């Protein structure tokens, strides 16, 4: 079953989520999160908008609270329009929490506006990065 957390005005679901998926939405000024569970133990968090000092704590809360129940978490970051240093710090913190809980954390992203800050900061090698959510989920098997 899928738990989807989505915030903001998203009347149409571009992912084509099936009835077996459940989802929930969360919104904070500048960022929308859609959290879904495509199947037991695997979590996909789609981030839309800015990942900065204001919004990073919400992402951390949404993911860290679910890590104990997840074998794999994929952060879908193609919808991120700005990745600030606080967003980078949140990704590092999520990686550390995932490692401690034994959860596989992967990023699904092809956007330069996300990959470039990761590369400039020398952090890209710390993450399992894939071109799509499906690739990231497959790698987590």
From TrEMBL:
| SUPFAM superfamilies named in the record | SpoIIaa-like (SSF52091)
Q: Which InterPro entries match?
A: Anti-sigma_ant, STAS_dom, STAS_dom_sf
Q: Which GO terms describe its molecular function?
A: anti-sigma factor antagonist activity
Sequence ranges assigned to domain STAS in this UniProt record: 40-140
Identify one Pfam family in the record.
Answer: STAS
Question: Can you tell which superkingdom this protein's organism belongs to?
Answer: Bacteria
Q: Where is the composition biased (Basic and acidic residues)?
A: 1-13
The UniProt similarity line reads: Belongs to the anti-sigma-factor antagonist family.
Q: What is the name listed in the Swiss-Prot or TrEMBL entry for this protein?
A: Anti-sigma factor antagonist
